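Need AP-2 complex subunit alpha's 3D structure for a figure. Predict it.
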Amino acid sequence: MATSMRGLTQFIADIRGARVRELEEKRINKEMANIRKKFKDGNLDGYQKKKYVAKIIFTYILGYKVDVGHMEAVNLISSSKYSEKQIGYLAMTLLMHENSDFLRLVVNSIRKDLDSNNEVDNCLALHAIANVGGSEMAEALAEDVHRLLISPTSQSFVKKKAALTLLRLYRKHPEVIPAAEWALRIVSLMDEPDLGVVVCVTSLVMALAQDNLDAYAVSYTKSVDRLHRLVIGHEFAATYAYYKVPSPWLQVKLLRLLQYYPPSDDPAIRSVLYKVLETIMNNCAEPSRNVQHNNAQHAVLFEAISLAIHLDTHSPLVGIAAVLLARFISSKETNVRYLGLDTMAHLAARAESLEPIKKHQTTIILSLRDKDISVRRRALDLLYSMCDVDNSEVVVGELLRYLKVADYALREEMVLKIAILTEKYATSYKWYVDTILQLISAAGDHVGDEVWYRVVQIVTNTEDLQEYAAKVVFEHLKAPSAHESLVKVGGYVLGEYGHLIANEPGYSPLEQFHLLHSKSQFCLAATRSLLLTTYIKWVNVFPEIKPQLLNIFDRYRHVLDAELQQRACEYLTLASRPEDDDFLPSVCEEMPPFPPRVSALLGRLDRKHGDTEDKRTWVHGGKEANAERNGLGQNADSRQTSAPDASDNIMDSLAGLDLSGSKSQPQANASQGVPRPTVGPNIDRWFEKLCHGSEGVLYEDVQIQVGVKSRYQGHMGQVAIYLGNKVPTALTSFTATIFVPDPEALSVTFAKIPPSTIDSRSQLQQLLNIECKKFFSEPPVLTLSFMAGSHQAVSLKLPIVVTKFFEHVKLGQAEFFERWKLIGGPPREAQSVFPITLDSSGQLDLERHAKAVTGNRLNILDGIDPNPNNLVAGGVLHTSVEGKVGCLLRLEPNSEAKLCRLTCRSTSENVAEEVLKLVQKPLLVKSSN
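Structure prediction for AP-2 complex subunit alpha:
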């Protein structure tokens, strides 16, 4: 650019040739004065504006403030020449901040460039939006960027930039992006043939899915399909093979995206996914000599292991992963050790049994002394997650020993974790108190208030612990230097329970007073205030040291600190009251037990970790912490404890205190939102016909035809969906998803993952496996989306109704009426009277009535009813959970009144009502149907 503008080239040369800063400033001031004069005179052509704005940009880059050229940059953006437009956009992104008033002037120009057929103009506009991206610009242009992303005419490199621009806007201003509304269309781009576009779109989907799990649930199938095509099918261009590893960046993103959702119940998806994970692990079984190849493989492998842990900790894949991780944590490479420890922490946080990890406890403890602090931090996380009742004393002891030499950046987190583990897995009160006081003595300034607060709560609420705690605190205070947190604990515990040890040698009231008061001179005002409260309590229980305590109160009356002075005056007055006054004993009564409350330690630890941009799908701290976490795609059940025997756990004995820290939260349902079925007269007619038929057309338009063919046996069924492409071009980005209103009653799964493309004028078949677990009333909904010039989506109710799972039953006349009477009337009877249509001769259409009954898989019983026009039928509903449900039906038409009475009786009232509705529908439609 500079070579085509001699003035700019000379200006840059002069600046670089300046020997001192004064000469540089003089040259710049001279040039800026000339530019202001030129801009003021006007009549500049595009080339001159471009040259002067380029000089201003260079000056700004050197670090000088500029206050000229903004309007000229705005004008350059509207230019039709690329070089001028480029300089205008460059000036805009550098000289203007996101709240600049000048940005309002360029919104229309940017929108025009986004709508342009010139890909270069598109890219310049996208760069500007991504770099500046203020809230006003995001709100005004987000839809234009989205339109450019999904446009079938956009080039691949434009789509990549559009996806990343939307990602930038969403991260800065998520409220302006209708993420759920755009979900299907954005996810469909994951089927693009260009892997570069797929990588960018997957990054966008990952960000959007974290906050909109339901809307982006369809991305689960897309991710599994793309992984299968990459890892097993090897469907990728040679340019996307990084050291023979197919697009490792995309693999990592897809594997991470799958961890946001709960494991799929679809056996076809699970089978494909396990095959992919197994292939990835087998490919990485033997390391290569090429470092870059190893790095790419390890990146994919560790994410695959994390996904395997997320799917099922009992699977053989996790067993293979545990063996691999054991090898990695001993690796000579720092990065591999880091990743091995981090992934093993994930396994420890989710696994039912920690025994495979405990085998490597010595290696993990040695990692605390690794030369790299990141590895040391991951070792700390792993020890925290793998700790349980059996190894808690060993792990906590090692952490306490390491605490004395640990990095200052790690100490605060270590203190919190040691305190949590000690409290959580302590099996004796003495070990808990000894460990916590040792921690407070060793950690010093890194002990937060939450730690000593918690000690006070537990000692106060545990009567058997109070005497021992007083003795141990006293012994710790004998050290030459005691940290202020220890003095606070000592002040509280000795003030409340010092009288319990006052009669033992070495713990007299006077010795307690001298020891505690000797530490006060090194403490802050807040700690001295607490000690004054200890002294007033001693006045009540230790009258023999009352003169010394009154002397302390009198001395503190003259200190400068207002809080200490006021407290001392009040306590002196209170202590000087007559001895027969019972006011002091009532004021200084022993503290009552604390009410049940959640420990603040875990909250403090969570705040310290904070949230990252890519939210972790698990937390450190063992399986019970993860079971209670209301996270991305996790199924949390009732609250669990990690101790093998709850009676051995100190947590169950501390007067109702909830020491585990976090409350159980209901889990968000990760299923996709309820789709709205496509409506239309033909659609309803096709659906009704298939409800009492086995094959036919379910939907048809100018682009696609959907046919159905089904068969059922007992509580199982199989439906073949025939998808026909009627247009001369392929249907791309094809997606098929099933929504089941009540998955506990009905299971509908694909036999294999649907393809992403349907070739022109061709038909493909998709099989659905169906299981009726118990009664259901709402049919599942099939949602199809595809690209055919533009994005199309259609949602169709599948003709899977409860009568499909009926089986014929044969009954005699006596047996039928005996069962009919045995079932009785309401609520296990449903009855309806409705008008009927006679045939052309004015007679009853008995054949049509029989088809309506038999189409719902009920067996017509001949010779049961004395009236030959009446129909009697029976059947048995098969379910895998509730067993068999009997159903009897009686149809009584009246040709004179043109009415029909339909009565259905069943051992289940729900079944009776549903069968009545299903049989009645075909009787109400016209006979031509």
